Amino acid sequence: MSSRPDAPVAPQIDEALVRRLVATQFPDWAALPVRRVSAGGWDNRTFHLGDTMTVRLPSAAGYAAQVAKEQRWLPYLAPRLPLPVPVPLGRGRPAEGYPFEWSVYGWIAGEQATAARIGDLTTFATDLAGFLAALSRVDPAAGPAAGPHSFWRGGPLRTYDGETRGAITRLAHRVPAGPVTRIWSAALASTWAGPPVWFHGDVAYGNLLVRDGRLAAVIDFGTSGVGDPACDLTIAWTLLDASARTAFRTALDVDAGTWRRARGWALWKALITLDHPNPARVVEATHTLDALLTEPDSGGGPTVP
Asked: Within a domain: residue 3?
C-alpha cells in the first residue's frame, strides 16, 4: 500500500491559477497580491493572499478529502487548544480546470521549527507535549475515525507492515535488518486499548511554528482524526535529542506500548523515505533511524545488541 499519492494534478498550481480562483469566488479579495509560500509542503500548495491570509490547494486526489475535514473540525478544535491553529475563512469550489475544493485560512506568523530556530529543545518538547495532551482531551464524539483521509495515521500500524518489511529487505545493504525488524515487531505487538482520541497525524517540524525560539502554533491538520495518538509522537526521534525526548515522554506520561508504536511509526517513515530517496529528506530519515537504533527500548534493554 502506498503511503502517499505521487502524481500532482493538472493544471499547474501556481500564482496565476490562485488569482483566477480567488477573483471569481471571493471577489472582495481579488485585488490582494498572491505569492507562493517558500515552504509550501507536498500534500498542498500554499500561497500568501495579501498579508493576513493563505490559500491552500490539495496537490493530488488523495489529499482532496482533507479540505472538508479541516473546514468542519478546525473551528471546533481551535478554541479548545492552547496554541493557535489555522482557522478557515473561505471554502473554494473546483473551477478554472482545478478539480478539487480548496481553502482560505488566516495567516499565522512563525518559522518552521528547525533545531537551529528553537531556543531550548526541552522547553519546546514540554510545550508540544502540553499541546498534544490538550488535543487528546477534546471530545472525540463524531470526529473522523482514522482511515484513508489520514493515510491510516491513528489506525493500526499493521496497515504498513508489508511496505515496511519490503523496505527493510531492499535496504539490507544500508540498514541493520535485525535491529530494525525488532523495533518493528515490538511496535506491531502493541495495540491501542483506550478510547479513540484526537490526533494531529503529522507532527513534523514543518507543521510546528516557532517565534522567538518558542513553539507558537501548530498547522496542517490534513491527516488529523480520532484514534490511536501514537503517530503524533514521532517527533521524539525526528527532531528531539535524548534529553528533550525524555522530557516529552514524561510530560505526556506515555505508556510503554504507545511508545513502541510511536517508534514503529517513526521507523516506517524513515525506511520508506530511504527506500524512495528524496535528497532533501534522506538526511532527516538517517537522523531518525540513528535515534531509534541508539535509544534504549521501552523495557529498559538496549535496542542494538
From this structure: no
Same domain as 263, residue 282: yes
The answer to whether the CB of 273 falls within 8 A of the CB of 245 is no
Residue 170's domain comprises 111-294
Q: Please, which pLDDT band fits residue 297 given cuts at 50, 70 and 90?
A: low
Same domain, 127 and 267: yes
**Is 124 among the domain residues?**
yes
Quick: pLDDT tens for 154-173: 999 999 999 999 999 999 99
Residues 85 and 135 in one domain: no
Task: Answer yes or no: pTM beyond 0.90.
Answer: yes
pLDDT tens digits, residue range 83-136?
Answer: 999 999 999 999 999 999 999 999 999 999 999 999 999 999 999 999 999 999
